Amino acid sequence: MAKKFGIFFTLFCILSTSCLGDWNILSQHKTNSGLKISLKNYCESWRMNVELHNIRDYVVVPQECVAYIGKYMTSTQYKVDSERTINECILYLSTNCILENDGKDAWIFDIDDTLLSSVPYYKKNGFGGNKLNVTSLEDWMSQGKGTAVEHSLKLFNHLKGLGVKIFLVSSRREHLRSATVDNLVKVDFYGWNSLILRDQEDECKNAQTFKAEIRSKLISQGYRIVGIIGDQWSSIEGLPSAKRSFKLPNPMYYVA
């Protein structure tokens, strides 16, 4: 009996130790201040601070939050958050944005996870929990499998109706141009003014520098950038800036 109890006690200790390091088993942890939190609290806080740009330069989503991020990116909440962003863009255009209607009013869209969703790719590749494989991602892009970020299409068509010039500025490389155009048109994005991708000379620039330089060129051509929307801070930060910038949610990856 004593021997059996000893074995049981040893197993109990091992399992208890394992549980202490596993968010999926423990129902609560504590913050530095002693506040009891669940795994959901922890991961929601992480996601929120990514969107607020307090958390930067992360390479992968924390492993304990991968399931949570995957659930969020395929949830109604993600769609509601995205729709709210688009509605705020349209509200701005109808209330605080003065258009000159001279062919020089411009709006900039990012592409990935702004117009074309890469959620189908990341669903099969760990929702950001795995280090990015650029070759794999570009192969997926070349197949034109991106789905429309549906509420962005509403804004896209609204801008066309207003006569605003639409510029698509993406960190995608030039060799993906044909596949990108085909994918965009396939999901009903068409009628833009220009599609700007990375040339070979842009390879060493980070996304923020590359996109800021494009904005500078457009302004030098007489365009007034009344708005810009993207899923990464690097798409909307830097000088010169647009009159208004809007960010869509995306905690799956970070692009500097």
Automatic annotation (TrEMBL):
<keyword id="KW-0325">Glycoprotein</keyword>
<dbReference type="Pfam" id="PF03767">
    <property type="entry name" value="Acid_phosphat_B"/>
</dbReference>
<dbReference type="InterPro" id="IPR005519">
    <property type="entry name" value="Acid_phosphat_B-like"/>
</dbReference>
<comment type="similarity">
    <text>Belongs to the APS1/VSP family.</text>
</comment>
<dbReference type="InterPro" id="IPR036412">
    <property type="entry name" value="HAD-like_sf"/>
</dbReference>
<dbReference type="InterPro" id="IPR014403">
    <property type="entry name" value="APS1/VSP"/>
</dbReference>
<dbReference type="InterPro" id="IPR023214">
    <property type="entry name" value="HAD_sf"/>
</dbReference>
<feature type="signal peptide">
    <location>
        <begin position="1"/>
        <end position="21"/>
    </location>
</feature>
<protein>
    <recommendedName>
        <fullName>Acid phosphatase 1</fullName>
    </recommendedName>
</protein>
<dbReference type="InterPro" id="IPR010028">
    <property type="entry name" value="Acid_phosphatase_pln"/>
</dbReference>
<keyword id="KW-0732">Signal</keyword>
